[in-house]
Amino acid sequence: MTTKNIYSSFSELIKHLELVHHIEGGYYRQNYRADNTISTHRGIRPISTSIYYCLPSHDVSVWHKLVDVEERIHFHYGDSVTIYTIENRQVKTTLLDDPDGAPFIVNANTWFAMKPSGQKTSVNFSLMSCICEPGFDYSDLVIADKQLLSEVDSEHHTLVASLIKTAKFVYIRYKNYQGKIANRRILPKKLWFGATRWHSEKQYLLDALDMDKNQQRSFAMKDILAWSDQPLENGDL
């Protein structure tokens, strides 16, 4: 990736790269998904995927891990990034700040978190690329909760706890524009009134991350037939 010093602010970068919220924190957009696939014990995956990933200065990438997936993190531009990993009950810290340097490799099944270091106060974000092999799938992503504290020695508890944020999923039964009904697991983002390409009449819409489709979507509130904080069975209404 060639990065010019054209991003004077985080909002300018978000607009230019068309980034959206990521469940772990920060903002992203997938820029590569291999056509070739590989069969894993968790299902079919593309052999590789890549995203732009950006952390604004006020945000963090919370503790998470990818099941059986290796991730390579390349630094591009902005404030340097502090990467935390948990190994043998210890928290290890790495500073990523060289666009020409080697990527940081997160081994499969390793808990890690990130945040801007705050060293470059004139730049209010950190821009990276993240490459996953096999390719990223939300079903391989695990977000840590407070149980993670039991996996590190006590001297690390304060730091580890500061980077934990449990994602709250909502389970819905939804009727799409074709009249098809299906259960969905979503992470709500914003409720608003308006119209989209798929919802031409102005109405209340819910922007959410569709965890089953791996997409940011707008759901028509009137077409949500059931809500729950637990997975819905086929007969639930």
UniProtKB/TrEMBL annotation:
Q: Which residues form the DUF985 domain?
A: 12-141
CDD domains tied to this protein: cupin_YML079wp
Top-level taxon of the source organism:
Bacteria
Gene3D superfamilies reported for this sequence:
Jelly Rolls
Entries under Pfam families matching the protein = Cupin_5
Record protein name field: DUF985 domain-containing protein
Species of origin: Sessilibacter corallicola
